[in-house]
Write a structure and sequence with these properties.
Blueprint: H1 5-18, H2 30-38, H3 45-55, H4 67-77, H5 79-99, E1 105-112, E2 123-133, H6 138-204, H7 210-245, H8 271-281, H9 283-304, E3 310-317, E4 321-327, H10 337-401, H11 407-442, H12 460-463
Antiparallel strand pairs: 1-2, 2-3, 3-4
Helix pairs in contact: 3-4, 4-6, 5-6, 6-7, 6-9, 6-11, 8-10, 9-10, 10-11
Amino acid sequence: MMPDPKQWAACLLATSLLGCANFEAKPVTAPKTVSSLETRTLDSTRLRDFIAKNMGQTPWSLNTWNLTSLTLAAFYYQPELDVARAKWGIANAQVITAGMRPNPSLGFSAQQNTVEPGGVEPWGLFWTLGIPIETAGKRGYRISQAKHLSDAAGYDLASTTWKVYSRVRSSMVNLYAAKNEADILQKQVLAQREIVRLLQRRFQSGEISLPELTQAQIALQNAVVAFSDMQGRESEARIELASAIGITSLSGITIDFEGMAKTPKPEKLAAESMRRVALLNRADILSALAGYEASQNALQLEIAKQYPDVDIGAGYDWGQGWMLGLALPLPVLNQNEGPIAEARARREKAAAAFTLLEAKAIGEIDSALSAYRVSDRKMTVIDKLLRDREINHGAIQRRFQIGETDQLALVESGNILLSAEFAHLAAVVGKMQSLGRLEDAVQRPLFPPAPIPGIQTIDPRREVQ
Protein backbone atom coordinates (compact mmCIF):
# COMPACT_ATOMS: atom_id res chain seq x y z
CA MET A 1 0.00 0.00 0.00
CA MET A 2 1.33 3.43 -0.96
CA PRO A 3 2.00 5.71 2.09
CA ASP A 4 -0.35 8.62 2.59
CA PRO A 5 1.33 11.89 1.37
CA LYS A 6 -0.07 13.67 4.42
CA GLN A 7 1.81 11.27 6.68
CA TRP A 8 5.00 11.90 4.69
CA ALA A 9 4.59 15.66 5.09
CA ALA A 10 3.92 15.40 8.82
CA CYS A 11 6.99 13.22 9.35
CA LEU A 12 9.26 15.57 7.42
CA LEU A 13 7.96 18.61 9.32
CA ALA A 14 8.42 16.91 12.71
CA THR A 15 11.95 15.81 11.81
CA SER A 16 12.96 19.33 10.80
CA LEU A 17 11.61 20.83 14.02
CA LEU A 18 13.44 18.33 16.25
CA GLY A 19 16.83 19.56 15.03
CA CYS A 20 16.19 23.25 15.69
CA ALA A 21 18.55 25.13 18.02
CA ASN A 22 17.32 27.60 20.61
CA PHE A 23 18.74 31.05 21.23
CA GLU A 24 20.32 31.65 24.62
CA ALA A 25 20.99 35.27 25.54
CA LYS A 26 24.46 36.02 26.89
CA PRO A 27 24.61 39.77 27.58
CA VAL A 28 27.92 41.60 27.93
CA THR A 29 28.04 44.87 29.85
CA ALA A 30 30.95 47.22 30.41
CA PRO A 31 30.57 47.44 34.24
CA LYS A 32 30.45 43.65 34.57
CA THR A 33 33.52 43.23 32.35
CA VAL A 34 35.48 45.88 34.26
CA SER A 35 34.56 44.24 37.56
CA SER A 36 35.72 40.86 36.25
CA LEU A 37 39.06 42.28 35.09
CA GLU A 38 39.65 44.04 38.40
CA THR A 39 39.14 40.81 40.37
CA ARG A 40 41.87 38.99 38.45
CA THR A 41 44.81 38.52 40.81
CA LEU A 42 47.65 36.08 41.36
CA ASP A 43 46.01 35.05 44.64
CA SER A 44 43.17 33.21 42.88
CA THR A 45 42.79 29.64 44.13
CA ARG A 46 41.74 28.44 40.68
CA LEU A 47 44.78 30.07 39.10
CA ARG A 48 47.07 28.40 41.60
CA ASP A 49 45.40 25.04 40.99
CA PHE A 50 45.94 25.54 37.26
CA ILE A 51 49.63 26.42 37.75
CA ALA A 52 50.19 23.56 40.19
CA LYS A 53 48.65 21.15 37.69
CA ASN A 54 50.84 22.37 34.81
CA MET A 55 54.02 22.57 36.88
CA GLY A 56 53.47 19.23 38.58
CA GLN A 57 53.38 20.82 42.03
CA THR A 58 50.53 19.72 44.24
CA PRO A 59 49.67 21.30 46.57
CA TRP A 60 50.69 24.83 45.69
CA SER A 61 54.14 25.51 47.08
CA LEU A 62 55.51 28.63 45.34
CA ASN A 63 56.43 31.59 47.52
CA THR A 64 57.83 33.62 44.62
CA TRP A 65 56.90 33.98 40.96
CA ASN A 66 59.31 33.24 38.12
CA LEU A 67 59.09 33.32 34.33
CA THR A 68 57.36 29.92 34.09
CA SER A 69 54.69 30.58 36.72
CA LEU A 70 54.00 34.10 35.45
CA THR A 71 53.71 32.74 31.90
CA LEU A 72 51.12 30.22 33.11
CA ALA A 73 49.28 33.07 34.84
CA ALA A 74 49.25 34.92 31.51
CA PHE A 75 47.94 31.80 29.76
CA TYR A 76 45.17 31.72 32.36
CA TYR A 77 44.17 35.39 32.23
CA GLN A 78 45.35 37.04 28.99
CA PRO A 79 42.34 38.26 26.91
CA GLU A 80 44.36 37.99 23.68
CA LEU A 81 44.25 34.21 24.06
CA ASP A 82 40.48 34.35 24.58
CA VAL A 83 40.14 36.11 21.22
CA ALA A 84 42.47 33.62 19.48
CA ARG A 85 40.58 30.67 20.98
CA ALA A 86 37.28 32.19 19.83
CA LYS A 87 38.64 32.57 16.28
CA TRP A 88 39.77 28.95 16.34
CA GLY A 89 36.29 27.95 17.56
CA ILE A 90 34.74 29.81 14.62
CA ALA A 91 37.07 28.02 12.20
CA ASN A 92 36.14 24.65 13.71
CA ALA A 93 32.45 25.50 13.40
CA GLN A 94 33.03 26.36 9.74
CA VAL A 95 34.17 22.76 9.19
CA ILE A 96 30.69 21.68 10.31
CA THR A 97 29.15 24.25 7.98
CA ALA A 98 31.26 23.02 5.07
CA GLY A 99 30.11 19.45 5.63
CA MET A 100 26.40 20.23 5.60
CA ARG A 101 24.43 18.69 2.78
CA PRO A 102 21.70 20.75 1.07
CA ASN A 103 18.26 20.17 2.53
CA PRO A 104 15.46 18.74 0.41
CA SER A 105 12.48 20.99 -0.29
CA LEU A 106 8.82 20.23 0.15
CA GLY A 107 6.11 22.11 -1.71
CA PHE A 108 2.31 22.17 -1.81
CA SER A 109 0.04 23.82 -4.33
CA ALA A 110 -3.64 23.81 -5.21
CA GLN A 111 -5.27 24.45 -8.57
CA GLN A 112 -8.94 25.08 -9.35
CA ASN A 113 -10.30 23.79 -12.64
CA THR A 114 -12.90 26.35 -13.74
CA VAL A 115 -13.84 24.19 -16.67
CA GLU A 116 -14.54 20.68 -15.49
CA PRO A 117 -14.15 18.04 -18.18
CA GLY A 118 -15.74 14.74 -17.48
CA GLY A 119 -13.99 12.79 -14.73
CA VAL A 120 -11.78 15.71 -13.60
CA GLU A 121 -11.91 16.97 -9.99
CA PRO A 122 -12.72 20.69 -9.55
CA TRP A 123 -9.63 21.09 -7.36
CA GLY A 124 -6.15 19.78 -8.07
CA LEU A 125 -3.81 19.27 -5.09
CA PHE A 126 -0.08 18.82 -5.63
CA TRP A 127 2.75 17.74 -3.29
CA THR A 128 6.31 18.16 -4.55
CA LEU A 129 9.62 17.00 -3.12
CA GLY A 130 12.99 18.36 -4.34
CA ILE A 131 16.25 16.55 -3.53
CA PRO A 132 19.42 18.51 -4.47
CA ILE A 133 22.54 16.43 -5.14
CA GLU A 134 26.03 17.96 -5.22
CA THR A 135 28.33 16.50 -7.84
CA ALA A 136 32.05 16.43 -8.67
CA GLY A 137 33.19 16.15 -5.03
CA LYS A 138 32.30 19.75 -4.11
CA ARG A 139 31.43 18.86 -0.52
CA GLY A 140 34.76 17.10 -0.03
CA TYR A 141 36.73 20.08 -1.35
CA ARG A 142 34.70 22.42 0.85
CA ILE A 143 35.39 20.31 3.95
CA SER A 144 39.09 20.05 3.14
CA GLN A 145 39.32 23.82 2.70
CA ALA A 146 37.57 24.44 6.02
CA LYS A 147 39.85 21.96 7.81
CA HIS A 148 42.95 23.68 6.48
CA LEU A 149 41.56 27.06 7.57
CA SER A 150 40.87 25.52 10.98
CA ASP A 151 44.48 24.32 11.12
CA ALA A 152 45.60 27.85 10.23
CA ALA A 153 43.49 29.27 13.07
CA GLY A 154 45.05 26.70 15.42
CA TYR A 155 48.52 27.83 14.40
CA ASP A 156 47.40 31.44 14.89
CA LEU A 157 46.45 30.47 18.45
CA ALA A 158 49.94 29.01 18.88
CA SER A 159 51.44 32.22 17.49
CA THR A 160 49.39 34.31 19.92
CA THR A 161 50.49 32.02 22.74
CA TRP A 162 54.11 32.68 21.84
CA LYS A 163 53.49 36.44 21.71
CA VAL A 164 51.99 36.30 25.20
CA TYR A 165 55.04 34.41 26.49
CA SER A 166 57.33 36.87 24.68
CA ARG A 167 55.60 39.87 26.27
CA VAL A 168 55.90 38.34 29.74
CA ARG A 169 59.59 37.58 29.21
CA SER A 170 60.31 41.03 27.75
CA SER A 171 58.44 42.74 30.60
CA MET A 172 60.38 40.70 33.15
CA VAL A 173 63.67 41.73 31.51
CA ASN A 174 62.58 45.39 31.69
CA LEU A 175 61.63 44.99 35.35
CA TYR A 176 64.93 43.21 36.06
CA ALA A 177 66.81 46.09 34.45
CA ALA A 178 64.84 48.82 36.23
CA LYS A 179 65.08 47.14 39.64
CA ASN A 180 68.83 46.54 39.46
CA GLU A 181 69.54 49.95 37.95
CA ALA A 182 67.55 51.54 40.78
CA ASP A 183 69.63 49.59 43.33
CA ILE A 184 72.89 50.80 41.77
CA LEU A 185 71.65 54.39 41.51
CA GLN A 186 70.60 54.33 45.15
CA LYS A 187 74.14 53.26 46.09
CA GLN A 188 75.52 56.03 43.89
CA VAL A 189 73.33 58.59 45.67
CA LEU A 190 74.70 57.43 49.03
CA ALA A 191 78.27 57.49 47.70
CA GLN A 192 77.84 60.94 46.17
CA ARG A 193 76.39 62.29 49.42
CA GLU A 194 79.42 61.00 51.25
CA ILE A 195 81.69 62.65 48.67
CA VAL A 196 79.86 65.99 49.12
CA ARG A 197 80.15 65.67 52.90
CA LEU A 198 83.89 65.03 52.71
CA LEU A 199 84.42 67.86 50.21
CA GLN A 200 82.45 70.27 52.40
CA ARG A 201 84.93 69.57 55.20
CA ARG A 202 87.82 70.30 52.87
CA PHE A 203 86.12 73.46 51.59
CA GLN A 204 85.55 74.68 55.13
CA SER A 205 89.22 74.09 55.89
CA GLY A 206 90.23 75.87 52.69
CA GLU A 207 91.70 72.81 51.00
CA ILE A 208 89.48 73.06 47.88
CA SER A 209 87.72 75.79 45.95
CA LEU A 210 83.98 76.39 45.69
CA PRO A 211 83.73 75.16 42.05
CA GLU A 212 85.03 71.74 43.11
CA LEU A 213 82.38 71.49 45.81
CA THR A 214 79.69 72.81 43.47
CA GLN A 215 80.59 70.21 40.86
CA ALA A 216 80.16 67.43 43.44
CA GLN A 217 76.83 68.90 44.59
CA ILE A 218 75.57 68.99 40.99
CA ALA A 219 76.64 65.36 40.56
CA LEU A 220 74.63 64.51 43.70
CA GLN A 221 71.56 66.30 42.37
CA ASN A 222 71.86 64.44 39.06
CA ALA A 223 72.18 61.13 40.91
CA VAL A 224 69.08 61.87 43.02
CA VAL A 225 67.07 62.77 39.90
CA ALA A 226 68.29 59.66 38.07
CA PHE A 227 67.36 57.47 41.04
CA SER A 228 63.89 59.04 41.23
CA ASP A 229 63.36 58.53 37.50
CA MET A 230 64.47 54.91 37.78
CA GLN A 231 62.02 54.29 40.62
CA GLY A 232 59.31 55.54 38.26
CA ARG A 233 60.58 53.24 35.53
CA GLU A 234 60.47 50.33 37.95
CA SER A 235 56.83 51.08 38.75
CA GLU A 236 56.05 51.34 35.04
CA ALA A 237 57.82 48.03 34.42
CA ARG A 238 55.68 46.32 37.06
CA ILE A 239 52.54 47.74 35.43
CA GLU A 240 53.80 46.56 32.04
CA LEU A 241 54.34 43.05 33.41
CA ALA A 242 50.89 43.02 35.02
CA SER A 243 49.36 44.03 31.68
CA ALA A 244 51.29 41.28 29.89
CA ILE A 245 49.83 38.76 32.33
CA GLY A 246 46.31 40.16 32.04
CA ILE A 247 45.89 41.49 35.58
CA THR A 248 45.77 45.01 37.00
CA SER A 249 48.42 44.90 39.72
CA LEU A 250 51.49 43.05 40.99
CA SER A 251 51.49 44.66 44.42
CA GLY A 252 52.79 42.40 47.17
CA ILE A 253 54.23 39.90 44.68
CA THR A 254 57.85 38.73 44.96
CA ILE A 255 59.41 38.00 41.58
CA ASP A 256 62.32 35.62 41.15
CA PHE A 257 64.73 36.64 38.37
CA GLU A 258 67.19 33.82 39.05
CA GLY A 259 68.61 32.37 35.87
CA MET A 260 67.25 35.08 33.59
CA ALA A 261 70.66 36.72 33.18
CA LYS A 262 72.24 33.44 32.09
CA THR A 263 72.67 33.33 28.33
CA PRO A 264 74.22 30.73 26.01
CA LYS A 265 77.45 31.20 24.11
CA PRO A 266 76.91 32.25 20.47
CA GLU A 267 78.86 29.18 19.34
CA LYS A 268 75.97 27.02 20.55
CA LEU A 269 73.53 28.88 18.29
CA ALA A 270 74.42 27.92 14.73
CA ALA A 271 72.63 29.97 12.07
CA GLU A 272 71.75 26.94 9.94
CA SER A 273 70.11 25.06 12.81
CA MET A 274 68.28 28.22 13.91
CA ARG A 275 66.85 28.67 10.41
CA ARG A 276 65.80 25.04 10.21
CA VAL A 277 64.07 25.13 13.58
CA ALA A 278 62.22 28.33 12.63
CA LEU A 279 61.16 27.28 9.13
CA LEU A 280 59.84 23.94 10.37
CA ASN A 281 58.21 25.09 13.62
CA ARG A 282 57.24 28.77 13.52
CA ALA A 283 53.50 28.99 14.02
CA ASP A 284 53.02 31.86 11.56
CA ILE A 285 54.83 29.89 8.83
CA LEU A 286 52.74 26.78 9.52
CA SER A 287 49.60 28.95 9.46
CA ALA A 288 50.59 30.40 6.08
CA LEU A 289 51.24 26.89 4.75
CA ALA A 290 47.80 25.74 5.91
CA GLY A 291 46.33 28.85 4.26
CA TYR A 292 48.03 27.90 1.00
CA GLU A 293 46.54 24.40 1.16
CA ALA A 294 43.14 25.99 1.75
CA SER A 295 43.63 28.10 -1.39
CA GLN A 296 44.36 24.89 -3.30
CA ASN A 297 41.07 23.41 -2.11
CA ALA A 298 39.28 26.64 -3.04
CA LEU A 299 40.58 26.32 -6.59
CA GLN A 300 39.53 22.66 -6.74
CA LEU A 301 36.07 23.68 -5.56
CA GLU A 302 35.69 26.37 -8.23
CA ILE A 303 36.82 23.93 -10.94
CA ALA A 304 34.30 21.38 -9.66
CA LYS A 305 31.56 24.00 -9.95
CA GLN A 306 31.90 23.69 -13.74
CA TYR A 307 29.90 20.52 -13.35
CA PRO A 308 26.29 21.32 -12.48
CA ASP A 309 24.50 19.95 -9.46
CA VAL A 310 21.41 17.83 -9.97
CA ASP A 311 17.97 18.42 -8.49
CA ILE A 312 15.76 15.34 -8.41
CA GLY A 313 12.10 16.17 -8.08
CA ALA A 314 9.16 14.00 -7.10
CA GLY A 315 5.52 14.97 -6.86
CA TYR A 316 2.08 13.67 -6.16
CA ASP A 317 -1.11 14.86 -7.80
CA TRP A 318 -4.30 13.74 -6.14
CA GLY A 319 -5.88 13.40 -9.50
CA GLN A 320 -3.01 12.02 -11.59
CA GLY A 321 -0.75 10.15 -9.12
CA TRP A 322 3.05 10.17 -8.78
CA MET A 323 5.53 11.94 -11.01
CA LEU A 324 9.36 12.23 -11.16
CA GLY A 325 11.59 14.96 -12.59
CA LEU A 326 15.20 15.95 -13.05
CA ALA A 327 16.59 19.50 -13.23
CA LEU A 328 20.09 20.88 -13.69
CA PRO A 329 21.54 24.20 -14.86
CA LEU A 330 23.03 24.26 -18.35
CA PRO A 331 26.61 25.65 -18.42
CA VAL A 332 26.21 27.30 -21.80
CA LEU A 333 26.71 31.00 -21.01
CA ASN A 334 29.66 30.51 -18.64
CA GLN A 335 31.76 27.68 -17.28
CA ASN A 336 32.67 29.44 -14.01
CA GLU A 337 35.76 30.99 -15.64
CA GLY A 338 35.78 34.11 -13.44
CA PRO A 339 35.76 32.40 -10.02
CA ILE A 340 38.34 29.88 -11.26
CA ALA A 341 40.65 32.70 -12.35
CA GLU A 342 40.17 34.44 -8.99
CA ALA A 343 40.93 31.22 -7.09
CA ARG A 344 44.08 30.67 -9.16
CA ALA A 345 45.22 34.22 -8.41
CA ARG A 346 44.54 33.75 -4.69
CA ARG A 347 46.59 30.56 -4.73
CA GLU A 348 49.49 32.44 -6.34
CA LYS A 349 49.14 35.17 -3.73
CA ALA A 350 49.16 32.59 -0.91
CA ALA A 351 52.29 30.97 -2.35
CA ALA A 352 54.03 34.34 -2.68
CA ALA A 353 53.02 35.31 0.87
CA PHE A 354 54.41 32.02 2.19
CA THR A 355 57.73 32.55 0.39
CA LEU A 356 57.88 36.14 1.67
CA LEU A 357 57.24 34.99 5.23
CA GLU A 358 60.02 32.39 5.05
CA ALA A 359 62.44 34.96 3.62
CA LYS A 360 61.44 37.41 6.35
CA ALA A 361 61.99 34.73 9.01
CA ILE A 362 65.47 33.97 7.68
CA GLY A 363 66.31 37.68 7.70
CA GLU A 364 65.02 38.07 11.27
CA ILE A 365 67.10 35.10 12.45
CA ASP A 366 70.30 36.29 10.76
CA SER A 367 69.83 39.84 12.07
CA ALA A 368 68.99 38.70 15.61
CA LEU A 369 71.89 36.24 15.67
CA SER A 370 74.29 38.95 14.49
CA ALA A 371 73.01 41.33 17.19
CA TYR A 372 73.40 38.59 19.79
CA ARG A 373 77.02 37.99 18.78
CA VAL A 374 77.72 41.73 19.00
CA SER A 375 76.16 41.87 22.48
CA ASP A 376 78.26 38.88 23.53
CA ARG A 377 81.48 40.59 22.38
CA LYS A 378 80.43 43.77 24.17
CA MET A 379 79.74 41.72 27.27
CA THR A 380 83.28 40.30 27.14
CA VAL A 381 84.78 43.81 27.01
CA ILE A 382 82.55 45.11 29.83
CA ASP A 383 83.37 42.06 31.97
CA LYS A 384 87.08 42.86 31.69
CA LEU A 385 86.53 46.53 32.53
CA LEU A 386 84.48 45.57 35.58
CA ARG A 387 87.16 43.15 36.79
CA ASP A 388 89.79 45.88 36.34
CA ARG A 389 87.67 48.30 38.38
CA GLU A 390 87.18 45.70 41.10
CA ILE A 391 90.94 45.09 41.24
CA ASN A 392 91.64 48.84 41.43
CA HIS A 393 89.04 49.33 44.14
CA GLY A 394 90.45 46.41 46.11
CA ALA A 395 93.91 47.95 45.91
CA ILE A 396 92.61 51.31 47.16
CA GLN A 397 90.80 49.57 50.03
CA ARG A 398 94.07 47.92 51.11
CA ARG A 399 95.91 51.25 50.86
CA PHE A 400 93.18 52.90 52.95
CA GLN A 401 93.50 50.21 55.62
CA ILE A 402 97.23 50.86 55.99
CA GLY A 403 96.78 54.62 55.88
CA GLU A 404 98.29 55.33 52.46
CA THR A 405 95.14 57.04 51.13
CA ASP A 406 92.17 58.92 52.55
CA GLN A 407 88.45 58.20 52.81
CA LEU A 408 87.55 60.49 49.90
CA ALA A 409 89.70 58.46 47.51
CA LEU A 410 88.09 55.27 48.80
CA VAL A 411 84.53 56.61 48.34
CA GLU A 412 85.31 57.99 44.88
CA SER A 413 86.81 54.64 43.89
CA GLY A 414 83.65 52.91 45.09
CA ASN A 415 81.55 55.34 43.06
CA ILE A 416 83.62 54.63 39.96
CA LEU A 417 83.10 50.90 40.58
CA LEU A 418 79.34 51.50 40.77
CA SER A 419 79.50 53.21 37.36
CA ALA A 420 81.27 50.13 36.00
CA GLU A 421 78.58 47.92 37.55
CA PHE A 422 75.93 50.08 35.88
CA ALA A 423 77.63 49.63 32.49
CA HIS A 424 77.93 45.90 33.16
CA LEU A 425 74.21 45.69 33.99
CA ALA A 426 73.38 47.52 30.75
CA ALA A 427 75.46 44.98 28.83
CA VAL A 428 73.75 42.07 30.61
CA VAL A 429 70.30 43.48 29.85
CA GLY A 430 71.30 44.17 26.24
CA LYS A 431 72.37 40.56 25.83
CA MET A 432 69.14 39.33 27.44
CA GLN A 433 67.14 41.48 25.02
CA SER A 434 69.19 40.21 22.06
CA LEU A 435 68.50 36.64 23.14
CA GLY A 436 64.80 37.47 23.40
CA ARG A 437 64.85 38.89 19.89
CA LEU A 438 66.49 35.70 18.62
CA GLU A 439 63.93 33.57 20.47
CA ASP A 440 61.14 35.59 18.85
CA ALA A 441 62.68 34.94 15.43
CA VAL A 442 62.76 31.20 16.13
CA GLN A 443 59.62 31.17 18.32
CA ARG A 444 61.24 28.81 20.78
CA PRO A 445 63.05 29.32 24.12
CA LEU A 446 66.80 28.90 23.60
CA PHE A 447 68.04 29.12 27.19
CA PRO A 448 67.28 27.21 29.18
CA PRO A 449 66.45 24.82 26.32
CA ALA A 450 63.04 23.87 27.66
CA PRO A 451 59.58 24.26 26.05
CA ILE A 452 57.18 26.88 27.28
CA PRO A 453 53.99 25.65 28.99
CA GLY A 454 51.58 23.96 26.60
CA ILE A 455 49.05 25.81 24.45
CA GLN A 456 45.67 26.14 26.18
CA THR A 457 43.12 25.28 23.50
CA ILE A 458 40.30 25.44 26.07
CA ASP A 459 39.71 28.45 28.30
CA PRO A 460 41.50 27.36 31.51
CA ARG A 461 39.21 29.54 33.63
CA ARG A 462 36.33 27.28 32.61
CA GLU A 463 38.33 24.06 32.57
CA VAL A 464 39.34 24.22 36.24
CA GLN A 465 35.86 25.08 37.45
